[in-house]
Amino acid sequence: MSKQRVVVKIGSSSLTNAHGEMDEAKLAEHVQAIAKLRQLNHDVILVSSGAVAAGFSQIGYASRPVTLKGKQAAAAAGQGLLIQAYMEKFAEHDLRAAQLLLTRDDFKDRERYKNAFNTLMELLERRVIPIINENDTVSIKELTFGDNDMLSALVSGIVHADQLIMLTDINGLYNENPRQNPHAIKYDYLDRITEEMIAQADQHGSSVGTGGMKSKLEAAKMALSLGVSVFIGTGKGGEKLSQIIEGSGDGTYITNPTKGSITTNKQWIALHSEPVGQVYVDHGAEEAILYQGASLLAAGIRKVQGDFKAGDVVEVYGKNGLIGKGEVSCSADVVMKELQLRSSDKDCLSSRVIHRDRWVRLT
Ligand SMILES: Nc1ncnc2c1ncn2[C@@H]1O[C@H](COP(=O)(O)OP(=O)(O)O)[C@@H](O)[C@H]1O
Ligand SMILES: N[C@@H](CCC(=O)OP(=O)(O)O)C(=O)O
Q: Domains, the chain, ranges and CATH?
């Protein structure tokens, strides 16, 4: 099998014992399975929950805290212990690991996004296993990724992973929560995640997890849109991850055969950038940028709004509303001047306002 780049997401439910505390034996088994992937020469990035589980009893909670500040304090106490446990176990397999704590804001800011990307690439280059978790101390509800499912999907896009493996305490996606309906039917293979499936999915997960199957489906949809195949399921023993990438895993495989990977620049524009203006295009320009892979020229612009400058991201509107987002190569002032000169200066009209490599379609 050719070398694969795999993001493995391990949820709290796959790392804990019956009291919700970190279970070192489970952690050791995941590490063994990752070591096997590395032995087979695959690249692995680990997104691991478990900080709250590793920390709460250490700081005097009788059970997993339910308040945000309680979880944050437990995570602050537990993250070090979690990483220490991973480092020790990886060292037994002669592997090195590194910790990255990320927040949603890190992805919104282009500079920080690039830094995260560069760090990940350098670690992979040096054969170090990145271990990523949300930065729970500074993440408040509006700023978080929701949970590590979405974080793992976004990371899988950034690193252009071949596959995102979401390990959890259940062997895949069912048409209903099988813990509530024992007759629920399991999906073995899917080629898309529909809005309907997400709407029907249950947010209630295990006692230690966040988001249940709903957040996994939202994450899977995101990963698929970024050209990454997804596996949701479980497994036993040190071979479980190699079995999953060979196609014999215990879970649900979701693959979008038509979707190729998209550049990190385009991912940032599509998913994280905050638009600072709007550009309205005419019918010809809409056709050209949507269907002919062309760049947007000033000649096709009817109107601009907002005080954007070169390098900013704007929303692009066509006949029926929003059609995409793009990074402009000139300011609103320059575009407006060009529009005013439309009849007298034909050269201006050929200026490129959004290069096709900096444009993403949202329809
Ligand atoms: N349609 C479904 N198919 C499978 N599992 C489901 C479904 N709906 C809800 N679940 C629940 O989702 C749980 C896994 O989610 P969660 O506890 O958040 O996991 P993790 O900690 O691994 O992120 C399962 O234990 C199961 O009870
Ligand atoms: N970031 C937190 C947990 C987030 C969470 O519960 O995620 P998950 O178990 O993947 O649904 C932690 O490390 O404990």
A: 5-260 (3.40.1160.10), 273-361 (2.30.130.10)
